[in-house]
Amino acid sequence: MTSSLLDSMSNGRRLYFKCEHLQRTGSFKLRGALNALLRMPQGYAGVVAHSSGNHGQALAWAADRLRLVCCVVVPNDTPAAKIQPMRSYGAEVHFCQPNYSDRRRVCDRLAAERRLYPVPSSDHWDVISGQASVGLELIEQVPELDAVLVPVCGGGLAAGVALASATMSKAAEPASASAARSSVRVYCVEAAG
């Protein structure tokens, strides 16, 4: 999509927007979740993930379509508006404390007890390669791109788009949530010795 208003504010640049909020579950997360489930190894009774909303919804939708059991671990302070869609797609919702270590603990326990395949929201090759379809579509739809700006939270979308697009120049994230920039800076310092 384009916007003449935003174009007029961008110093003569033509801007293109990939409107992932129009996906079935409201975000790009569906691409990675579905790809991970389609590539899931045999022998599992279903899938499990921890999520505050979008990944859980996407995984539940994909699991429902593939007739798989889906468990989503959510912090106990997750808004009902995020939980309801997961349940409507057939997910079992399991609550945990609102911190990363408890999310992982409950998720790992469910995976072990019920033979569920863990599908993290961003640090999983099949999830990242599913998100890469965003970059592939950008290249096909607008081959004359000079740069690609990608919002960063967990990094799965940015990693996928980077894989698909040699034109990627920057990742965008809120200044108050600079985890991606900080992690790159730490990695570069550690790699330099």
From TrEMBL:
UniProt domain Tryptophan synthase beta chain-like PALP: residue ranges: 11-192
Function: Catalyzes the synthesis of D-serine from L-serine. D-serine is a key coagonist with glutamate at NMDA receptors. Has dehydratase activity towards both L-serine and D-serine.
Species assigned in the record: Macrostomum lignano
Cofactors named for this entry: Mn(2+); Mg(2+); pyridoxal 5'-phosphate; Ca(2+)
Protein name listed in UniProt: Serine racemase
Coiled coil ranges: none
GO terms classed as biological process: D-serine biosynthetic process; L-serine metabolic process
Keyword terms: Lyase, Magnesium, Pyridoxal phosphate
Family listed: Belongs to the serine/threonine dehydratase family.
Reaction(s) catalysed (UniProt annotation): L-serine = pyruvate + NH4(+); D-serine = pyruvate + NH4(+); L-serine = D-serine
SUPFAM superfamilies listed in its UniProt record: Tryptophan synthase beta subunit-like PLP-dependent enzymes
PANTHER family for the chain: SERINE / THREONINE RACEMASE FAMILY MEMBER, SERINE RACEMASE
